[in-house]
What we know:
Keywords: Transferase. The protein is of the alpha/beta class. The protein has helices spanning about 5-10, 85-90, 130-135, 195-200, and strands spanning about 20-25, 40-45, 50, 75-80, 100, 105, 110-115, 115, 120, 135-140, 155, 170, 175-180, 185-190, 205-215.
Amino acid sequence: MLTREQMAQRVAQELRDGDYVNLGIGMPTLVANYVPEGMDVMMQSENGLLGMGAFPTEAELDADMINAGKQTVTARKGAAIFDSAQSFAMIRGGHVDLTVLGALEVDVSGNIASWMIPGKMVKGMGGAMDLVAGAENIIVMMTHASKHGESKLLSECTLPLTGVGCIRKVITELGWLEIEEGAFVLREYAPGVTLDEIRAKTAGQLRIADDVREMHFSKEAS
Length: 222
């Protein structure tokens, strides 16, 4: 199965030169460490930082420089710092090219549930509702199943929705999937994972792409 770092590296392959990118809290923040060399990408944090860099070394650590998840980060050359109102104006105005988010559930219609489990957890909507409405391209980065083994890739979300019909790409520890015509289409699978295992852990309709392939990674993402 893929490590969190390998998942982040695979998502980073979707970056394009000149993109404005918002990384959600949790696993998505790792993507900042795998921007391809020579590519100019501006990472945006909803708390008001445009030009977020990789996580800091001990020498670079600044307790006042944080992302939306309150993790310490660095700022790249040319970065801008502003208030959250300006940050959300950027998001709501459609100026973010790519958003990478975590999720509790995703379904074959491209719906996403990411903010609460009634009676158990309410972590708050945060900026996710604005991000799924404003970004041109959204990638969900999550585990394929819950800690109880229940699939998170469903025919229909059971939890309160964050956004409707907005998700097209999903990466889990088992593979890379795209949502097309009411199904999850498996495009790439993790090394050592069988197609039968992915079928068994996907509750929503699953199709295997004709050109499905195994993922390959550099050693630093292993």
